[in-house]
Amino acid sequence: MEFLSLPVRTSGKRTYGITSIADFGIPTGELENILADFGQFIDIAKLAIGSAYITPNIKKKINLYQQYEIDVYCGGTLFEKCFVQHKIPEYASYLKELGIHWIEISNGTIDIPLQDRLRLIQELEEEFHIIAEVGSKDANKEMSVCDWKMEVAQLLEAGCDYVITEGRDSGTSGIYEKSGDIKSYLIQELLKEIDSKKIIFEAPLPKHQMYFINEIGPNVNLGNVKPADVLVLEAQRCGLRCETFYVEERACKLTF
């Protein structure tokens, strides 16, 4: 019986309000239990780092996610490994054989020029949904706010479905300071010009998630979520945690 007034959440096959988890090697049996209880709260699953390439029974895991209408993609590290070894055509064939319809194009570990990434998007967009990532995993590499905005805008214009803002699974690089503090000035600048529905903010820790929920709204796109945290995150989105208790019932901020 529902009797509380809560923020309205997107539902079904979401295009925003997305929760994207990072799967760092969940055993299939454990995953079955997680999805049976909490699959309704998960929209996308990233097979983190390059783990998909060596995961036993990888096809079984992918099929399990897809049974719950959860989109699957491989972490950007695997893409970058293939790029450096000139194996992108083989990588595309590998994904299609696995039944994966999404591909991440990133440069978090190696420096791939923006023009090369834009070219690859154009080459692959007819075969895949594309997620691109902006920002480095190296906390010592700083991008200017202007470069952040320029890259995000150009990647979306090139045909990406979403752009991810780098944060790592530790929340200590990209949109975060080494200390784990959010670069709030950067987020504010991105939101001035970019449709937040097209950005997935990596937010691995509850304190990061609560910031974005309070700043943007309950239907903000969040990534690198730990599978064990998806219920708590949904509670946060619904104003059922003290830090988001008064979250306003509002749609994500939009810029047109």
TrEMBL record:
InterPro entries: Aldolase_TIM, ComA_synth, ComA_synth_sf
EC top class, as a word: lyase
Family the entry assigns: Belongs to the phosphosulfolactate synthase family.
EC number: 4.4.1.19
One Gene Ontology MF term: phosphosulfolactate synthase activity
Keywords of this entry: Lyase
Native species: Siminovitchia thermophila
Protein name (database record): Phosphosulfolactate synthase
